[in-house]
Amino acid sequence: MAAHLSYGRVNLNILREAARKELREFLDKCAGSKAIVWDEYLTGPFGLIAQYSLLKEHEVEKMFTLKSGRLPSADVKNIIFFVRPRLELMDIIADNIISEGKAHSSRDYHILFVPRRSMLCERWLKEQGVLASFTNIDEYILDLIPYDGDLLSMEYESAFRECYLENDQTSLYHTAKGLMTLQALYGTIPQIFGKGDCARHVANMMLRMKREFAGTQNQILPVFDTLLLLDRNVDLLTPLATQLTYEGLIDEIYGITNGYVKLPPEKFAQKKQGEASKDLPTEPKKLQLNSAEELYAEIRDKNFNAVGAALSKKAKIISAAFEERHNAKTVGEIKQFVSQLPHMQAARSSLANHTSIAELIKDITTSEAFFDNLTVEQEFMTGVDTDKVNTYIEDCIAQKDPLIKILRLVCMQSVCNNGFKQKVLDFYKREILQTYGYEHMLTLNNLEKAGFLKTQTGSRNNYPTIRKTLKLWMEDANEQNPNDISYVYSGYAPLSIRLTQVLARPGWRSIEEVLKMLPGPHFEERQPLPSGLHKKRQQGENRTTLVFFLGGVTYAEIAALRFLSQMEDSGMEYVIATTKLINGTTWIKSLMDRPESQMP
Amino acid sequence: MMKSKADEEDYWNSSKFKAFTFDDEDDEFSRLKESKQAVNSIRQLVDDDDDEDDVEKVSWSGEPVGSISWSVKETAASNQRTDREPAFPKITTERPPLNKSQSGLSLSSLFKGGNLTARSLGDTSVRLFAPELRKPKSEYKDFVSDWTPVETVQRLQQGKAVSLEKFRSLQDKLLLLDFAVAAHDGNVITAVTLFTLFTLYGLEVLFRELESRQTALRHFIHYMTETRDQRLLLELLRSGLTWTFNSSSYENKRRDFVKSCLSLPFSPEDSAHVQDHYTLLERQIIIEAADQRAERDGKMEIFQRFPRKAPILNMPLITTLYYCCLYHYNESEGTYSSPLNIRQTFKISEKQYFATVLAARAKLKAWADVDALFTSRNWLGMMKKRSPLSFQRVVDILQKNSAPTQVLQEYVGLVDDAELRISLAQKHKCHDIVINTFRDMKDRQLLMEYRKKVERGSAEEKKIDQLLNNVQIRWKN
């Protein structure tokens, strides 16, 4: 499963192994048979690191989901809770322990906090009177999880909200820690660039942590040449737009979590011959999506309009390969054919799956609603009538379309207009509150705090300048054979990726003016290397940049970076890291407040 | 095992043995060796890649058999079958329980002013796989107790024993707080803020100081939100802090709570919304009580014809308006439930009002009301249909409420743009409009084409035939 991690420019399997090793060590600390009680949220991220078999080797016999009440019975020596440091989870744990009572006095209880232990949680447990029942309280620092061959994610969903809304920079501390771990394994990164307040914080913490280790020199030849830290709030626009790559659309429509997607089962009904399997499966079909699957790696980053052609081409190749059997005459030839059969069958089932997914997506992308929405988005991005109340949005509100859709559009318009006139903002706010309920005042407030919604201050709208200087809109984006990153949004080139592209060539000095218009400082730092570790670069050898998106990144942006890596003359390869993979919907959702859930 | 490890560390770390550490500057060589070892051990791990990963079985739900979430389900399921109290033989081979003071930085003892002995355990899991992750030097003087604020914060971050009691004066505490904020570690900020909170006399001082420390304030509010400490939160709000965060107070939707919020220092726009929210809740309570009674008594026929699906309490404003358009449409403007009154009170935009009324009356198939909605007299006293919504949207709304073709037809005919009109008419099968439009366009070809689409022998077919045979029309093709 993990082989695909080592194919990339940087072997990310090393990181995965380090994480596994630590997990084994913790498990061995609790001697004897074990049962793990999982905070369900964590099973996803852990799945990227370890399989059940690893746990089994270390005497994990049972696994349960964390629930109130009595623990399911299990004949084990140790009960280990794998949890995030959250108070509501502590309540459940306390409940478990209390209901267990004295039944298993010989049993040991342990807590493993992921990604960090929290004093608040421990105090909470103490107040419930159960803290003393735990033999071990430990933390498992799951900072950067290898997600794919060129992609690391912290799977830290609330990072953006915490940084930009709650002013809680704990996630940045984790980021800096994660980057230190990464440097310990892959060598000191000699050059650090950054843009944004959070980027500055992270860089500062990294440099400070490095100073704290003064005296110990990292002797590993650096794998990364450059680190680029980008604040998400430098580019609020990109995630709000609907992604138009294959993978991006899968995420927009069905949501990819921890590398898995759940799809409506109808299109995946297996038609086995001779079997009367008339009843359709009702459970959603779950598929893992990563570059281990050859076909997926090939089409994931294409514009959706180019996916159909790619699939049919692949279909021809596969059927041709199956036809080969007629040409196999000698025993040797037949043997060779048979040896390829498993591979071919895997390719065929992969093709069947993706054809089904593409069909599902096509139903949506060809709908009128999708088209209308996209048209308005593109109007905003090109700066058409962004200063007035938009009738499409107004109509959508009157029709009670999902609130998140409305918020995405209103925020997008605001960002593309560098804020609204007071009158326009008030109008949108009133319409939203009247239609969806006054409790959403909290959400609107959050969006204002995070900079999505604002009133235009004296200065004029600078978005057009940014758009023109960075060439954010390309009139003739080529979806089939792209020659520019703008293909990922069929015309719009993601701002964040333009910044990355310009940094590589010709350098940020050429866009000083625009950088000043974007929020937060931009900076460059150097980390000196011991003399023996300076890379002697071969002619034509590519440089490697790690781009870290603080606050999330979309699949379309990743696709754009992969596109840049593959460009022949770019001379740069990118590895991507982020706090969380996001799309407009999950992002806005993370900023919403649901007061009902907090009623006293 | 753990204990011995901890002991080992104590041994190396305690000041008695300070003469020898790994960090002697001249020990370059041993360090290099160590780093090499670490790297090699990693290589080894990578190379003997577990075979479990290569072949993957996938269950129907698509999760690889053996993945964690799959196994959670499996073992949980299998467990139900063996759901019996296991006879647990008491064997006393277990280790003596560890000293519990290790297992947590006790904050509550901190609040009571007790001595804070904290986790020495936190660091036993130091990552050993790479040299840079080894402990920094500063950690080696663990058992000296006179920490500066910076060191205290660092130790808190590392989960080490530390005593906050020595920060006695307000100034010291605030200094500590500032360093905690600078460390960007939420855990530490919360701990220090709470320490300050519980060791200060009176909340005012803390609130005053927090006002200039927004980060700490946020952490504090977050803590209160999580622990649901509404009382303290309201206290904080009352103290009149002028910070932009005004929402936590808003979490209770109950009227009284909202009412109590009215006096809080919101921004002017927000306070108008809070006022509206309160007014709405108040009205909903009145309307709900009256309608419940009316429904029970069976006096109002409308409730029998269209039984209410749910109480109107806590619904958004537009939903409330819709409800009132269904059940209280013709009430005079003086009542709380009159749609016109609601429109006035909450300043609902013309379009929103119009769309809502239209949908509600169409739902009841009150076509006369729908008709009246659009009709206005111009200065000549002529009746004319006007609408703040585009007629396309009107048709859309009517169609969604399953209006009959005759009604739809009337409004499709009012769409100005000919092309749009035709496409709408075709979509909703308003044949007359299509035919008339083609006639007006003098497009014989299209008309002949359309003839194939209508039913044989229908009135529409006859009409088309008549037109086609009409010699007075000068067809353009």
UniProtKB/TrEMBL annotation, chain A:
GO terms for cellular component: autophagosome; clathrin-coated vesicle; early endosome; late endosome membrane; lysosomal membrane. Belongs to the STXBP/unc-18/SEC1 family. Keywords: Cytoplasmic vesicle, Endosome, Lysosome, Membrane, Protein transport, Transport. The keyword Transport applies. Plays a role in vesicle-mediated protein trafficking to lysosomal compartments including the endocytic membrane transport and autophagic pathways. Believed to act as a core component of the putative HOPS and CORVET endosomal tethering complexes which are proposed to be involved in the Rab5-to-Rab7 endosome conversion probably implicating MON1A/B, and via binding SNAREs and SNARE complexes to mediate tethering and docking events during SNARE-mediated membrane fusion. It is a peripheral membrane protein. This is Vacuolar protein sorting-associated protein 33A. Gene3D superfamilies: 1.25.40.850, 3.40.50.1910, 3.40.50.2060, Syntaxin Binding Protein 1, Chain A, domain 2. Transmembrane segments: none annotated. GO terms for biological process: protein transport; vesicle-mediated transport. It is found in: Cytoplasmic vesicle, Autophagosome; Cytoplasmic vesicle, Clathrin-coated vesicle; Early endosome; Late endosome membrane.
TrEMBL record, chain B:
One of its GO terms (biological process) is vacuolar transport. Residues 33-62 are annotated as: Disordered. The keyword Transmembrane helix does not apply. GO terms for cellular component: early endosome; late endosome. Keywords: Cytoplasmic vesicle, Endosome. The keyword Transcription regulation does not apply. InterPro entries: Spe-39. It is found in: Cytoplasmic vesicle; Early endosome; Late endosome. PANTHER family: DEFECTIVE SPERMATOGENESIS PROTEIN 39, SPERMATOGENESIS-DEFECTIVE PROTEIN 39 HOMOLOG. This is Spermatogenesis-defective protein 39 homolog. It comes from Kryptolebias marmoratus (Mangrove killifish).
